[in-house]
Amino acid sequence: MTRLPLALAPLSDETWPSYLTRRAAQHGTTLAGMGSHLGLRDGRGRWTGRFGVDLSYGEVTRVAPILGLAHVQVEQMQLASYDQLAFDLSGLAQDSAIAGTRRAAHSAWVWLAGSTFCPLCLTQNDGAWRLSWRVPWITTCLRHNTHLHGICARCGGVPGLGNSLHGSAPPRVAAAPDGRRCPHPEPGRRVCGSDLTAQPTVSASPDRLRRAKIMADLVAGGRGHFAGAETTSLQALRGWQAAIGLAVGLGAVDANGWGRTHRWANPPRDPDLMDRLLRAVEPLVAAADPAAAADVLYEWLQNAGIRSPHANTFGRITQPSAALRPVIDELLGRHGRVHIVIQRRLVANDGLPLDATGWGVDDIPQLVWPCALPDHLRESTRPDQRILRAVVSMILVRMCSDAKDWVEAGAALGFPPDKSRNWTRYAFADKWDRKGDLLGAARHLEGHLAHQPSLSRFRHRGDVSGFGPSGLKEAQSPQCKDERGNWCPCRCEPTTSDSEGQDHVDVCAAK
Question: Where is the TniQ domain (predicted)?
Answer without folding.
Answer: 5-148
